Amino acid sequence: MAAPTLPAGAVLQPRKGTGFRQFKSAFATVAIVGAFVAAAVPLVALVYYVAREGLKVFSWEFLTTDLPFSQRSVEGGIYPAIIGTLIITVGATLIAVPLGVMGGIYLNEYGARSRFAAIVRFLSEILTGVPSIVMGLFIYTFWVLPRGADGFSALAGSLALGALMLPVVIRTSEEMLKLVPHELREGSLALGSRKSRTIRTVVLPHAAPGIVSGSLLAVARAAGETAPLLFVIGATNLVNWDWLSGSNTALSVQIFGNAASPFVPAQERAFGAAVTLILIVFLATAIARIVTVVYTRRVSGAA
Amino acid sequence: MPPAATAGDTITRVDLTPTQVRPPEVPADPGPVPGREVVFDLSTVEIFYGEARAVTDVDLDIARNEISAFIGPSGCGKTTVLRSLNRMHDLTPGARVAGTITYHGEDLYGPKVDAAEVRRRIGMVFQKPNPFPKSIFDNIAYGPRINGVRKRSELEGIVEQALTRAALWGEVKEKLKSSALSLSGGQAQRLCIARALAVDPDVLLMDEPCSALDPIATARIEDLMEELKETLTIVIVTHNMQQAARVSDRTAFYTAEADDNGRRVGKLVEYDATATIFTKPSDPRTEGYITGRFG
Fold first, then answer.
1. SS3 per-residue string spanning A68-122
2. Contact residues, chain B, for A302 at CB < 8 Å
3. B106-107 vs B95-103, strand pairing mode
4. pLDDT value at residue B186
């Protein structure tokens, strides 16, 4: 076979049409950077504005004193709302995460393609789309009203937020369990491990980081929810450590109430509460991430 | 085969089979060989996925302390048969086994048989090394822990013994606490063998254990199989005919043929001593395959 004849001149130089290709490349770069800036600007602006307004009143005293009885008062802090938010959110997490993870395990490991699993999956999808205020009304009707004046409690708030988180946790868990390689399950079963043990010792540890991340997003969203809490936790100016009974309050509810106030001290308190809420969510996310990383290292033995 | 003639039978049966066409093979049953203890006995085994028949006509027995190799082209059902031997097959939705498979004389698919118990006795090594994302120690200790071994000192003994048997101890004894995922492919496969050995199985099923490994790692696994056969029974599925010829005592050749409905169904063609299969196979299809004329 004859060797192909090389074209005369330099063969390694760019071909024709390179100029247009370079133009397309530059255009795409600009578009991508532009999209990033467009997405980042509102975020930065929001944090900047909230911080600028909120930090005027933000102090240790602001975090640790009870709410004032008058919206006009410049005294007082948001301590009861911080405690309320923490209790309600932790309570909601304790309700929704175990249930949701178990639901995800059922859907992926046991139900799989069964009819019942399909129904559960469909209903949980619908539940994801239920507006949060409707969830509040639901808890108000079925939990708060039957208990009369004693119905308001942090627990009622946890139930409402938990119901909001539940479908998200179920879906995330199912998706994360789906990603666990089939070979790992087979490896465990081939050693004579039963299904439940395989799920506990091989499947769940492998899916844990993803489940934690997903649950965390649900928790962070729930912590900022106002609507479902408005009519189920009551109202108070004093700190209430009791999860099960007594009116409570939350940062989101305080932001809502105070921001709508005509009085400047109340408006400033609303921004202070907003900064606090952002900080709490940020801290919770950071802690959970660290825990996940440490845990993953431990189970994978990569320490 | 002509039916046994009875007295008074007046009709003379004519053999219509053209002489140049071989009659349908019935895999030659070599009969009981003295000193050969049968571990698995498969007779008229058929395996289905839902309605589809995947493998049919499997009749063979697998003896103790022998290495049996399953060879054949893709889709011939050799892995399917292998997975039916420790009931891993059950995990595939819709999978079903017809015919009988006995393990030391006990029906493997009997109504009271516990699949988890079966798998504790019949270990398996997979095509792709699948170490758990845990430490090397915890990988090996996984099986013993299932069996209720809790004492650290006891576990340490088992782990060392299993890794030694799998010829991996020297390479990993200093780093038992590090992740099993840090091992190379060959090491990971030997770890998986050690993990299977740690529950002290009676049989080791290997599903193309070397197909993801380089020749050096493959050679190590093959040497290992030779040693393990002293205490175990090994069944290996391989695409590599040289490997089957090198390591196995007996070889089963499977092939896939279209049935009446045009669906391809795997079947056992021939099962015999490896030397016989590779030098004077009795079936032309076997000869065609091992000489590279098809498949």
1. CCCCCCCCCCCHHHHHHHHHHHHHHHHHHHHHHHHHHHHHHHHHCCCHHHHHHHH
2. 178-179, 181-182
3. antiparallel
4. 87
pLDDT in tens, A162-196: 999 999 999 999 999 999 999 999 999 999 899 99
Vertex A206: Cα angle to A168 and B115 (nearest 5): 105
Domains and CATH numbers, chain B: 38-290 (3.40.50.300)
Q: Tens digit of pLDDT for each residue in B128-154? A: 999 998 889 999 999 999 988 889 999
Domain-embedded: residue A39: no
pLDDT at A96: 94
For residues B160, B164, B165 and B166, what is the CA-based torsion angle, rounded to 10 degrees? 110
Q: The domain that contains A204 carries what CATH number? A: 1.10.3720.10
Structural domain of residue A196, as residue ranges? Answer: 60-66+77-300
Decide if pLDDT at A221 tops 90: no
In this prediction, residue A167 carries a pLDDT of: 94
For residue B219, the distance in angstroms to the closest alpha carbon of chain A comes to 23
In 10 A of CB A197, how many CB atoms? 18
Burial of residue B270 (number of CB atoms within 10 Å: 0-12, 13-18, 19+): buried
- A190 vs B88, B138, B177: nearest CB: B88
- Tell me if A57 sits within 8 A of A269, measured CB to CB: yes
Report chain B residues whose CB lies below 8 A from the CB of A189: 88, 91, 116, 119
Q: Tokens in use for A130?
A: 């239920």
pLDDT tens per residue across span A240-277: 888 887 888 888 998 998 888 888 888 888 999 999 99
Shortest alpha-carbon distance between residue B111 and chain A (Å): 18
Host H or E run for residue B206? strand B203-207
Task: Calculate mean pLDDT across residues B47-69.
Answer: 89
Tell me, yes or no, whether A31 lies in a domain.
no
Q: How far apart are CA B197 and CA A191, in angstroms?
A: 9
Q: Does residue A55 carry a pLDDT above 80?
A: yes
User: Is pLDDT of B61 > 70?
Assistant: yes
Q: Which of A76 and B42 is assigned the larger pLDDT?
A: B42
Report the amino acid identity of residue B58: V
